Amino acid sequence: MQLSKFLATYFYTTEELCHTLSIDEETLSAWQQSSLFPKPSYCLQSQLECSSYSGIYQCEEYQDYYPRGAASWGQLIIKHDITSSCQAFNYFAQQYSNQLSKLAEQGFAINEELFGSEIDEHLQQVWQQFLCSKYGVLTQNGLVEEAVQLDVAKLLIDDITEMRTKTGLNMDERQSLHKALKLINRALSHGTGNEGKNTLRHRYIDDVVAKYDLSIK
């Protein structure tokens, strides 16, 4: 997909995001400086040549893009009057933990070490990644629930396939892997198609499906 079309389809410009949240750009910037809100997922710098009746001239344009799910996070900040990074993190941690519980109820094997005794450290790490908009790039909408789905599915796929070194899988392993593939497919961004093979989708879906003769449909 053409980059401009991809960004226009799945992302908000700064102006669109602010309009959706009924805030101004100064408020958005203040949220980011206070570590309440993620940075933009994509920052586009365009070198343009414009031709019109008046002639031809060159110019530069700059535009930031945010995932559509960023609006949900902004609405939470407004609704709960969040003013500190500590408050924002607590809401993030609560949403993340709630989604973990939902996945466990759905039968997904949750890594007890990472999501048990080390959960506090893990939450701090993913919170920083959320603020840097890692999940705004890697997931379809930049939602907290998609971040959890991605994290859990990656661990499951790595564990079942032994980091994709296992030569064969039994029936139970294939069923568990198939379920994990559906989960990660639901969370992952489809990307622009210009990233080549250096994507999570290629490594965790395309390669795995081909190696173990699976289908995620």
In short:
This is DUF6058 family natural product biosynthesis protein. This protein is of the alpha+beta class.
- What's the total helix number? 11
What order do the helices and strands follow? Answer: HEHHEEHHHHHHHH
* Tertiary shape: flat
Strand order of the largest sheet: 1-3-2
Helix content: 55-70%
Computed over alpha carbons, the radius of gyration is: 20 Å
Q: Strand content of the residues, in percent?
A: 5-15%
Uncertain runs: none
Pfam families: DUF6058
Protein name: DUF6058 family natural product biosynthesis protein
Walk me through this protein's architecture.
Pfam families: DUF6058. This is DUF6058 family natural product biosynthesis protein. The structure is a single chain. The protein is of the alpha+beta class. It is built from eleven helices and three strands. It has a three-stranded antiparallel β-sheet. The radius of gyration is 20 Å and the shape is flat. The two termini are 22 Å apart.
Key traits:
217 residues, alpha+beta, three-stranded antiparallel sheet, 3 strands
Secondary-structure blueprint:
Elements: H1 3-10, E1 11-13, H2 14-21, H3 25-33, E2 42-52, E3 55-67, H4 70-79, H5 85-105, H6 112-117, H7 119-131, H8 134-138, H9 144-161, H10 171-187, H11 200-212
Antiparallel strand pairs: 1-3, 2-3
Helix pairs in contact: 5-9, 9-10, 10-11
